[in-house]
Amino acid sequence: MEVVKVGMADLKVIKAPGILTTLGLGSCVGITLYDKRSKVAGLAHIMLPSSKEIKNNSNKAKFADTGIELLLEKMISIGADRFFLVAKIAGGSQMFSFNSKSNILKIGERNTIATKEKLKELKIPIVSEDTGGNYGRTIELNAEDGSLLVKTIGHGIKNI
Length: 160
What we know:
Layout: E1 3-5, E2 10-15, E3 19-25, E4 29-35, E5 40-46, H1 64-77, E6 85-91, H2 107-121, E7 126-131, E8 137-142, E9 148-152, E10 157-159
Parallel strand pairs: 1-3, 6-7
Antiparallel strand pairs: 2-5, 3-8, 4-5, 4-6, 8-9, 9-10
């Protein structure tokens, strides 16, 4: 079975059989979309909540708002039906503790919120998530059945 790696600020789509994987999700969020009828799977590894806050925003996959839209477009182009898509998300952890109350430092939480807002706007339901905490995650999305394997250091492995 083919395993396709998705880097930081990157996204990929595949049709079953195959696995999409991304390593080292800290404050980043891994957004997976899956259409069980066409067995089309997509994974985006977003780093920041909004492309509107950054001047150099040509890489759409880096941001929750534009990354999810681009992922949706690419999935539809290989046969997914947007009305059958479901989302699973992982990551968005707070990797460092800050004494400050500043929101700018809460990138993980802001990434998770922005991801949920965008998916809601696109009417794509989130069927499961593994977000928050203060540890990294590696995820694997199986295009055959849409299962998402979440591996952590010190917090075990689970299928969501």
